[in-house]
């Protein structure tokens, strides 16, 4: 119910296709839990009526609510809606107000779409569209109807009340975070890995992260940058735990005890081993990396085969077939790009050999790797790791 305090109502549309079938109720329950959590601190309240979500808030809190809706994974769209009683007169009056609002935004053409879940409403959807269109045309000079390619759409829904809205925003889509288990993201300070984590989150995966730090070769600023990235991605995923693991000793042993061209591949193998052990501890079901095929020497198919050759957990690489420009666009959209391009060096760059192996052979990789006897160093690094929380709502 609306009160005087709650003057604004947002209507939320589920990502319907994904929510079809027997799992629908379960998905909606998770989506609801996520939204309630994300709204914590906004003083808005969620109302679930006939399988629809409505968020009520004051004018003052509307920006915070819109910010939440822009980050809510699992919805196809949302709109600030007018609500009124179920008489034709009230609905047409609301259409006119919506028409005025469209014109104020510089929109010149529109159409009306109507849905009537309450079949006892006296006129059907078609008639409602015609009458709504007529009322807007009469009252709002400068607006004309274009059914094929309108600049604006006024939607009418007759449910337990009438909802009229003209400005549906596209949601992030995907499946609600928490419907597909958890994954451990190998999060570096680069552009790619935050995008990879976000992409898995849009498939419903909860995300934790691990960052391999090589102090003093990499600075505290570099670590703070990674924590900031965890914060930004965490705001879509109901927060994330991020574990900083010091890899300085491991990097030194690799540098001193293996052929230089192999150092990056061997470092990646060590990161994967440490990440897998951490994932089991955090109950994560897979690893996630920002690798993209052939983007750099360590990401040829042969070297990727080496880095995963000793793992049991699956490795998700959502960017594997995506080019850098598209990855950058995604990074800009989710808000990580500006932070990712800050200049602090990542440990791999500092240890990169001038002529890395391009097509490592798994057996050879295994021989070099075993000779390093890293198990104890990895155990120690994990024991001394620091876990922090970032991006949790409220
Ligand atoms: P990114 O932009 O994500 O840093 P990249 O293009 O720089 O990726 P690499 O440096 O080869 O590529 O790293 C490949 C992947 O390995 C990264 O996307 C990330 O998942 C993981 N990774 C690399 N360095 C680290 C690190 N220091 N800590 C955690 N994960 C890392
Ligand atoms: Mg990197």
Describe the structure.
With 394 residues, the chain is an alpha/beta fold. It has 2 domains: 7-170, VC0802-like (2-Layer Sandwich); 182-390, HUPs (Rossmann fold, 3-Layer(aba) Sandwich). Helices cover 40% and strands 20% of the residues. It is built from 14 helices and 15 strands. The strands form 2 sheets. Strands 1, 2, 3, 4, 5, 6, 7, 8 and 9 form a 9-stranded mixed sheet that branches. A 6-stranded mixed sheet has the order 14-13-10-11-12-15, with helices on both faces. α9 (301-308) links the parallel β13 (287-288) and β14 (315-316). α3 (88-104) packs across α4 (125-139) and α8 packs across α9. Bound molecules: adenosine-5'-triphosphate (ATP) and magnesium ion (MG). Magnesium ion binds at residues 188, 190, 346, 348.
Give the key terms.
15 strands, binds magnesium ion, 394 residues, alpha/beta, nine-stranded mixed beta sheet, VC0802-like, binds adenosine-5'-triphosphate
How many independent structural domains? 2
Largest sheet: 9 strands, mixed
CATH homologous superfamily identity of the largest domain: HUPs
> Please, what is the average pLDDT?
93
How many H/I helices? 14
Bound molecules: adenosine-5'-triphosphate, magnesium ion
Radius of gyration: 26 Å
Judging from the principal axes of the Cα atoms, what is the shape?
elongated
Tell me which CATH architecture of the largest domain applies here. Answer: 3-Layer(aba) Sandwich
N-to-C span: 24 Å
Report helical residue fraction: 40-55%
